[in-house]
Amino acid sequence: MSRDLPLRSSLLVRLLALAVLVAVGSIAATAWLAARTTTGAIRQEQGQAIADDARIYDTLLGYAATHPDWKGVDATVRQLGAQVGRRIALTDGSGAAIADSMPEAGPLPTKPSATIDALSVDTALAPRADGSGDRIDPRVTGPYLLPPGERATLRDAADQAVHCLRVRVGIDAVVVDGPTGRPRVDTPGTDLASNEGCLSLRATLATATATENKALAQLNGQVNTCLARRQLPPVRLGLGPTWTWQQLAPSPVDQETRIPPAPDPDANRAANTCVGSSQREQLAPYVAPPVTLFVSSPTGNTPTGFTISRANQARIAGVTSLVLLVTVGITVLAGVRLVRPLHALIGAAQRMRDGDITARVRVTGRDEIARLATVFNDMSERRERLEQLRRAMVNDVAHEMRTPVSNIRGWLEAAQDGVATADQRLISSLLEEALLLQHVIDDLRDLAAADAGELWLHPQQVYLADLVDQVVDAHRAQADQVGVTLTPRTDRDQELYADPVRLRQAVGNLVTNAIRHTPAGGAVTIAAHPDGAGATIAVTDTGSGISAEDLPHVFERFWRAEKSRSRQTGGSGLGLSIVRKLVEAHGGTITATSTLGKGSTFTLHLPGTPPPT
């Protein structure tokens, strides 16, 4: 097998090439990193310093946005200083110290690092996530902080909008809570600007609450006062805040043409200025006042570079060669151990392809290949068993079909030749054989439909007591004929949502089977009782029972405890297989218990509602 494989396609060769490539790349990268000067490290330190500066700035900015003053900031400053290993200090406008993570380190630098002002954010240090130029920190809530009741109402509306977008529009949406407690619907990767799906729910979510309207009304008054000083018309504010002009005096030309005038760019800029200044004025009481930030290093050490000598270069080359040699050796050993069981698997698979259903491989170890070999052996055993079942099924089907057909043909030929008289007895015998043939065909058809997924259910409300009584009435004559007592035991109030026809067929097959294997004077009991939201139906007989070694096979097709084909007990060996398919179609299970010589119990466990078909 391995000789037919080109060398370049060999798994061992490819593993070896890959290992050598990885080793060479790793050694080259390590040598390159070792040969470099510490310029990269310095740049990394600079990048880390920038990241630390941004982190410090953002943390203190968040503190300012959520506190009206700087009382209690000492703990935050000390924690930040310990985390980044740098000195952090805050001073007010007069230069007085507010907080210092290392007060013993001496005087502060002459040049401050930044100014912490939640209403005038440095976008270079803390850019907005939405890319806007708004310099007010989004964590500043002020009078816009929603009370719990309004948060719950908006959250409910957001959840409804998300459900609508997912179910009706097919857009993946999530709810994101803002700093004020106002939720928004976020659709990653999807722009809802041109999508009108679930528009009413989204519009409801965009409506301002009473708290927000009150704050907006206050802000609106401040903005319009500012605009009035500039001799500009008032505006109307919305969430965001957004604004629109309340009125614009049309020009004579506009009055004649009835075209609304275009906004004046200067007026728009003035309005934006008034909105920004009024917003900062409104939020100022809720944030800490501006302070000056100083960030410095307590050590000030600067790393130096280095060069590699010729002796060190020789050592690196020697280590490189040694690593390559060890890599090749280990790869060859591992590759041989890996390829050998794969070759065995390939050989077994080819033997199976050629018709040898007994092909197996030897399992060694506990790794993935050993698991693969185990699964292969299981598959081979399963295929061998299925082949045996298929042959047995073909033989059983041929026998079950041939016997009644041969009987019918023989008696009809005898009647045609005048050897037998076509009287009522002959007709009854032929009808019995035809019914047996029809029974086998119907059983095979039901099993074929179940295998093809076409065993359709028509569920409706079923009273267990009525269903059990119907089965008992249908089999009473059969039981009386052989001297078997048939007894129902049910709860009159129990209901079940199931297909009554299929359920009667399943229980009827069990009852027929129980009567067939119960001698005269025995008893068959049908008991039904609630089981949580579903129900349990048990058919118990006092018949011959089933041995422990045969019990696992009772639901297999064409299996009969009586191995011969004399059919002394009747039946085709398909009834219990059909029962299992019918129960599984309802989403339930069937179990069997038996004691040889004392009887058997077959129990159906059914859910309250069958699965959708």
Automatic annotation (TrEMBL):
Gene3D superfamilies: 1.10.287.130, 6.10.340.10, Histidine kinase-like ATPase, C-terminal domain. The chain crosses the membrane at residues 12-35, 316-336. Its EC number is 2.7.13.3. GO terms for molecular function: phosphorelay sensor kinase activity. The keyword Lipid metabolism does not apply. Residues 336-388 form the HAMP domain. Residues 396-610 form the Histidine kinase domain. It is found in: Cell membrane. It catalyses: ATP + protein L-histidine = ADP + protein N-phospho-L-histidine. InterPro entries: HAMP_dom, HATPase_C_sf, HATPase_dom, His_kinase_dom, HisK_dim/P_dom, HisK_dim/P_sf, Sensor_HK_Regulatory, Sig_transdc_His_kin-like_C. SMART domains: HAMP, HATPase_c, HisKA. Keywords: Kinase, Membrane, Phosphoprotein, Transferase, Transmembrane, Transmembrane helix, Two-component regulatory system. GO terms for cellular component: plasma membrane. PROSITE patterns: HAMP, HIS_KIN. It comes from the Bacteria. This is histidine kinase.
